[in-house]
Every structure is written in structure tokens, then in C-alpha cells.
Design brief:
6-stranded parallel β-sheet; 257 residues; two-stranded antiparallel ribbon
Amino acid sequence: MAGAPPLRAVEVLGVRVHDVTYDEAVVTLEAFVQAGRPCRVVTPNPEIVMAARRDLGYRAILNGADLSLPDGIGLILAARLAGKRLRAHVRGSDLIERLAARSAEAGWRWFLLGGAPGVAAEAAAALTKRYPGLGIAAAIPGSPDPAEDLTLRRAIAEAAPVHVLLVAYGAPRQERWIARNQGALDVPIQMGVGGAFNFLAGRSPRAPGWVRRLELEWAYRLATEPWRWRRQLALPRFAALAAAEALRLRIAAAAKG
């Protein structure tokens, strides 16, 4: 795509992930807006990869995205074990902040969809306070129920122009929603953002910077949201599978040599 850096992809346990830095991701998103066609952005992490291993339809949705961000240190480590390279851990929540700054400069309008009642509006208010000039076309909870798709598509069309659509229904519902509606929406950037609205609205605490730099955000979230323990059972399974895959690749390489 004109203006965007060429995207190299790495496969992590069957899920395609692009090897991008934050700056390259922003440049790619800007190219999506310039091109004007609907583009889908996903943010796979180990939990999402494990879900995609169980659900081939969901895996196809992830692998069909225009931009797949390495949103999880586990993906970086798994790729490294397999002899591949992902240069940066690109967190979706941090990319939103960078994209908001660029959007305020460029005059791009956002539509926030999802979250609990009131959360999208609170997130929108926080964003416009932090990034004066950022245009928010609308911020509503909506519903991931397919029966509501037409109503939501109409709401987004009525709010036009919309350049960035953030969908916060959690994985895999948000990715399925975007995949169903992407082609019917005249929105260049369509991105699933999980719990990012809660962070932006201040309803969920974000790990301090030093915790993120140590790549321990998963532990911080477990400590502050202990109900997540069931979801994080996927992490040791992911690690075991990544190690087994790396061993398989090394044995195969040795046999060829």
C-alpha cells in the first residue's frame, strides 16, 4: 500500500503477526486512511492465539487482518524460540494513544463502540481532554449481537466521516463483529481494542510504566483483577506449545542439514 512500509509477517502457533514497531504501525494506519478502503486491525496476544487454535474460523479472521500487532510479550518470546524475529511489543492500548495524537493533528474523526454503558463516553471525554482537537463522532456501547449489526452500521454511517472505529467487545466478539461489518462500513481503520476503554476512562488501573517496561503487565492485571485467573491459564499452555514448536523446528532443520 502506498506510503506504508512493507509488512513482514511471522507465524506464531498458526496466527500471523506483523513485525512492526510503534512508528511503523502508525505510518501503516495513516496509509489506510489515505487509501480510504476499510482495513481491519487485530491485536493478538497469547490468550487470543490459544483461542484461535481451538476455533479455525476465528483464526481465519485474525489471519485475514490488514494489520496484526504483536500485543503480548509471549508472542515475541515464542517467535524468538522458533528462530524468528518480532522487533517490538506493540501494545494496542499504547498505540491508541499514539494514533490519537496523530488523529488530532490530521483531523481524523473517531467512533468508539463497545464497553459497559457509559464507558465509551468516558473514554472519549478522556481522549479529547488529553488530545485537544481529536474529533469524536460518537461513543456508544452498542452490542456484539449480529441482530444489532444493521442498527450500528446505520449509526456509524450517520456519524460520517469516521476515520477510526475502535470496537471494545473483547476477543473474540470484537474481531467477529468487525469481520462481519467491515465491508459495509466506510471506515479506513477498524480495530478491536479489548478493555482499552476501561483504561482510558480510568475504570481499570493501567500498570505503571516500570511494570510495562519489565513486561510484567500480565501479572499486574492478574493482581488488580483476580477474576482473570481463568483466562490466564492459557499462558502456561501457550508457553508449552511454543517450546514444543521451537523444538520441532530445530529438529526439522537439523534433519535437513
